[in-house]
Each structure stands twice: as C-alpha cells, then as structure tokens.
Amino acid sequence: MPDVLKRPELLAPAGNFEKLEIAVHYGADAVYLGGKDFSLRNFSGNFTDGELEDAIKFAGKHQVKVYLTCNIFSRNHEQGSIEAFLERIGNISPHAVIISDPGIILKARQIIPHIDIHLSTQANTTNFNAVLFWEQQGVKRINLARELSIEEIKTIASRTTIQTETFVHGAMCMSYSGRCLLSSFLSGRDSNRGLCSHPCRWNYAVMEELRPNEYYPVQEDSRGTYIFNSKDMCLIDHIPELIHAGISSLKIEGRMKGINYLSSVVKTYRNAIDAYIAEPDSYSVRPEWYSELYRIYHRAYCTGFYFGHPDGESKNTLNPGNLHKGQIHSFIGKILENRGRHLYLIDIRNKLIPGDEIEILSPQGPARQTKVLSLTNEKGEPVDNAKPNTRLLIRIPLDAYQNDIVRKI
Q1: pLDDT at 371 over 70
Q2: Strand ranges across the sheet with 368-371
Q3: Nearest CA among 209, 146, 212, 157 for reference residue 180
Q4: Does residue 216 have a pLDDT over 60?
Q5: Which of the residues 86, 165, 279, 374 could staple to 143 if both were Cys, CB 3.0 to 4.6 A apart?
Q6: Which of 65-79, 163-177, 178-192, 238-252 is modeled with the greatest confidence?
Q7: Dihedral sign, CA of 41, 43, 45, 50?
Q8: What spatial distance separates the first Cα and last Cα of the chain, rounded to whole Å?
Q9: How confident is the model at residue 358 (pLDDT cuts 50, 70, 90)?
C-alpha cells in the first residue's frame, strides 16, 4: 500500500441553485450542472447564463469546481447556436465543459481553449487506446463507459495519464452508456437530446400475438413488470477498491433528484472517502452510511459492471421503488437561518406539528434525533400545523446549521 493515498474528487449533481448549495454544504469537491441549452437533463431546472455566473462565484467561495454540461449529439441546424453558446461559456468560465459530440469538441477547442474539456460517458469510452485518442484531441478527463469492470478501469488508469471519472451511485440506464431510443419511439422525446421520458421505468405486460391474454411468465407485482428497469448503483461497500483503481473522480447521478436524496448521498460518500484516506488500515463501512443510503427513495441496489457482468440480478423486475434494509424517512425541509437560542427558520416541504420527532442531517456524524419544542410564524405566533411551502420557526434542543436537512422519524 502506498504511503500517501490519492484522494479522488467527489462529483455531485446540481440541477438548480438550491441543489448546488446542498451539494456544497454536504462536501462535494465539484458539481456538474447544465445551462438552458444543449444539456441532457432538460427537465432538471438548469441555469440561465446569469445563474451560471452566480453558481460559479458561489462554488468558488467554497473551493468547489463547476463543470458545465454540453453533452447532446447536435444536428446541422444547431451549429451556429452551439458556437454562440460556447462563446458565452468562455465569458462565464466554468472549470470544464462536459461534451460527447466530436464536432462540439472541435469547436470548443477553437472558441474556448482556456476551458478544460471533459468527455461524457455518452461517448462510450471502453479502452485505453480510445482514451489516448481523446487525449490527443485535447480532452482532459474521460467519464468512462459504465460497462467497464474495475480491472478494466485499473488498466486504463495504469496505461494513460489523463484523468478518469466513473459513476458510483444512482440510477443506471439499461442501454449502452445511455444511448437509448426507447423514448424517441414511444413518446417522441429524444433521450440523447435531453428529453427522455424514461419509458424503461414504465410497467409492461408481454403477450404473444397469436395468444391473446396469455402473458410471458416474468416476475411481476401488483403494479406490473419492469423488464427494462435497472437496479440503482451503490458502491459504498467498495470505496477502497475505487481509490486503489486510480479513478480521479467519483460521480453521483441525479441532477433531477431532490435535495433529500442529494444530501444523504453526498454526505455518505464524503464521509466514507475521508475515513478511508485518513485511516486505511482500520477502515470499515459504518452502519450509519448504510442507514442513510437505504432510507432515501431508491430502487434495489447493485454494483453494476464493476465486479463482473451483472446478469439478471441487476434487472429490477419488481416494483421500481423496491427497498431493502430500511424505510423511507419523511422529508420535512431545510434550515434557512439560525436565529439563536436553538430557534431556526425552516423552509417547510411537508406537514409538521409541535411535538413531532424529527432528525437533523448535518455534514458530519450520524443524523441526530430530537423533538420539535415549538412551532411559530416569524411574528412569534404559535402554529399548530405547518403546511408545505411555508417558512416557519422551530425550536429544537440541539445545534443545527444553514442548509441542514430536516426529516420526520
């Protein structure tokens, strides 16, 4: 074992400014986000040019890098718009632009040579010679194809000098590194242009043409079958292997997911990476890390292709919300301000009443349980029942911080 382990970057999704704040609060080293154009997550909120400038300034104050997605496969009629977009990016200056289209890479090298290019997983990079090719094209980092094993990733890292990035947690696509046409055919929305309607998550019944009402014998529950569904990826058990594989950046999926998901996942992987780097010889996976990841909404977990071909075990043929080892907690909101004397202004997202048992999720340590001692409006008037989309003051007998997540037990 080397004397000094290289700490990989923890890269988190930021679908909007609130998610950016949460990712930074819980310990992301870098975030990836999209502008209003040419991003593969058109329904995640995304950022205007002005918001991008504010996001980069905010992240910079916290020593967090910002990577901007421009990872569609473009068409002829969009070339002029893409050049204009790249020119605007040049003035905004994110730390890198994530691209999959070789034509956009060509134009980016001409228009924004001062900004790093990261190659998207959509480019399906599966071997070290392909990595060397992209390095010659000016690419600084490769998000490797999700179909690679950890041994293949090790080989790429040992035979190249370019930065590598891999997904370690979140939803996976059943198609080849996300190149899917189901959405285009079934709903007219092109997944490769940011419009995926996720038909792989729909429930289906399979029937042979000449045998009406006789269904193919696949597993199903009361909601149907999910034959195109993948389980979610979770590699919390394998942080040491990921670090020793030489991966530069560990990436979390989920620009369209909420801050409850984001806070739990970023915090857990941040704590795990730091714990292993600090004391690798005594490292073990902590029970609270499992608790966090199993109590957010998720499909059944798997390790994807990292440790061999995933075969049928990685298909989520039952209810896509299938949970293991725990129950989903109820998301209440986030702390906006500390008003002193254990009084906090809360952005309420779900019902809350005085006396409720809640827990506070801070960046360090396990979630802490407590009780709501009082609930008032900002005038100090008691409130018996907090409604969603309101801001109220709660008093709790412990310390908490701005952007901490509040959940009901």
Answers
A1: yes
A2: 368-371, 357-361, 405-408, 330-340, 343-348, 390-395, 374-376
A3: 146
A4: no
A5: 165
A6: 238-252
A7: positive
A8: 42
A9: very high
Give the closest residue to 178 by CA, choosing from 315, 40, 38, 46.
Answer: 40
Domains of the chain: 9-176+229-314 (3.20.20.70), 330-408 (2.40.30.10)
Tokens at 196, concatenated:
């995926």
Q: What is the mean pLDDT of residues 353-360?
A: 96
Q: Which two tokens stand for residue 194?
A: 């940011």
Return the closest-CA partner of residue 172 out of 234, 124, 231.
Answer: 231
Identify the bridge partners of residue 391 per DSSP, sorted by sequence position: 347
**Helices 287-294 + 259-278 axis angle, to 10:** 160
Can you tell me the distance from the alpha carbon of 342 to that of 354, in angstroms, rounded to the nearest whole number?
15
3-state helix, strand, coil in the chain (%, to 5): 30, 25, 45
Q: Which residues of 321-354 are buried (b: 16+ CB within 10 A; e: fewer)?
A: ebbeeeeebbbbbbbeeeeeebbbebbbbeebeb
d(CA 386, CA 348): 7
Return the axis-axis angle of helices 17-25 and 259-278, rounded to nearest 10°: 30
Q: Do 167 and 120 touch, CB atoms closer than 8 A?
A: no
Under 8 Å CB-to-CB from 53, ≥6 apart: which residues? Answer: 92
* Residue 383 pLDDT class (50, 70, 90 cuts): very high
How confident is the model over 166-198, as pLDDT tens digits?
A: 999 998 876 655 566 667 666 777 666 567 777
Q: What is the pLDDT of residues 255-281, one digit of tens each?
A: 989 999 999 999 999 999 999 999 999
Cα(87)–Cα(94) distance, integer angstroms:
12
- Return d(Cα 250, Cα 237) in angstroms, integer: 14
Q: Could you give the CA distance from residue 68 to residue 49 in angstroms, rounded to a whole number? A: 11
Pairing state between β 141-143 and 116-119? parallel
Indicate the SS3 state at residue 255: coil
- Distance in angstroms (rounded) separating the CA atoms of residues 298 and 291: 13
pLDDT reading at 376 higher than 80: yes
